[in-house]
Amino acid sequence: MNTARYIVVAALIVGLVLGAGVGYLSIPPVTKTVTETLTTTKTEFVTLTQTVVTVKEKTETVTETKTVTFTPPKPPASFTLLNYSVTVKADTPVLYVQFKTTAPLTLKLIGPDGVRKDSKEVYPGELGVYLELASPFETPIPGKYVLEATTYEGSVI
């Protein structure tokens, strides 16, 4: 029984790592070609047995091409609250939040008592989400509620 549990946990971890790797690798690399021309001058002195000195000047031109691969940094995550409303859905008081986001986030609804009432993961392209204010058939606590948007790295936006 414990072996099966370890296998399931290991498969979950591998899936998360592969998913993060595929997401990061989906950013196309930007290739930039840099061409540099280096000119060097080399002077050689040759002395003959007679009292004549000959000076020869030699110029070499070297062209070197370097390819530099640059992956631009990801833009910072942003969250814009477009609209919200309080309603009842399936006998549960909820806050409907309309938003725009540029990165996957976790939205947390914190009640006036400082307790997290609900949280949902949201992704770019989603338009809205329902967050529960209280359990079914209960009246929400009156007061000020806080909506918190957090990145997967833990930064609050």
Features of the shown structure:
1 helix; three-stranded antiparallel β-sheet; alpha+beta; about 15% helix; about 160 residues; Immunoglobulin-like; 8 strands
How would you describe this protein?
With 157 residues, this protein is an alpha+beta fold. The protein has 2 domains: 30-70; 79-151, Immunoglobulin-like (Sandwich), CATH 2.60.40. 15% of the residues lie in helices and 52% in strands. The chain contains 1 helix and 8 strands, in the order H-E-E-E-E-E-E-E-E. It has one helix spanning 2-25, and strands at 30-47, 53-70, 79-89, 92-101, 105-110, 116-122, 128-132, 146-151. The strands form 3 sheets. It has a 3-stranded antiparallel β-sheet, with no helix packed on it. A hairpin with a 5-residue loop joins strand 1 (30-47) and strand 2 (53-70). The two termini are 42 Å apart. The relative contact order is 0.14. The model has no long low-confidence stretch (mean pLDDT 79).
Shape: elongated
Largest sheet: 3 strands, antiparallel
Rounded average pLDDT: 79
Strand content: over 45%
Termini distance? 42 Å
Classification by helices and strands: alpha+beta
- How many domains would you count in the coordinates? 2
CATH architecture of the largest domain: Sandwich
Pick out the low-confidence regions: none
Radius of gyration: 32 Å
CATH class of the largest domain: Mainly Beta
What CATH calls the topology of the largest domain is Immunoglobulin-like
According to DSSP, the number of beta strands is: 8
Instruction: Name the helicity range.
Output: 10-25%
Neighbour order of strands in the largest sheet:
3-4-7
Number of helices: 1
Order of helices and strands: HEEEEEEEE
